[in-house]
Amino acid sequence: MVDRLTHVLLGLTFALLGVLVGLGGIGLLAAALxxxxxxxxxxxxxxxxxxxxxxxxxxxxxxxxxxxxxxxxPAKPSSAGGDDIGTLxxxxxxxxxxxxxxxxxxAGGAFAAGVVLGISPRARKALWDLITKTK
Length: 135
What we know:
By secondary structure, this protein is mainly alpha-helical. Helices cover 85% and strands 0% of the residues. It is elongated. This is Holin-X, holin superfamily III.
């Protein structure tokens, strides 16, 4: 949990740093580079060159931010819940034809359950207690 939070905060830091660099320092450098390019090429071409360079720099900073927010390694499955996953998959395979046959009713039931759980704190607590109850 702390490791994931660290990755998210590092990614946010790099994203904000990218915004600061993009708006502040790059703006000043772009103005200076525009002055140099405007003497060599027409002003519209100078602006286009600067726009492409700014987009490339922002893409690099965006990719850097994504690299730091990506998880380092896949989560290891819990040894205690290994049997539950197989059981749930088998149950889902058995129920899949029935669920597809009655898709509107299933969707309506899921919607109704979502509304009830969204409105009622007691229903959320009861569901949470049911889920976290140990064997």
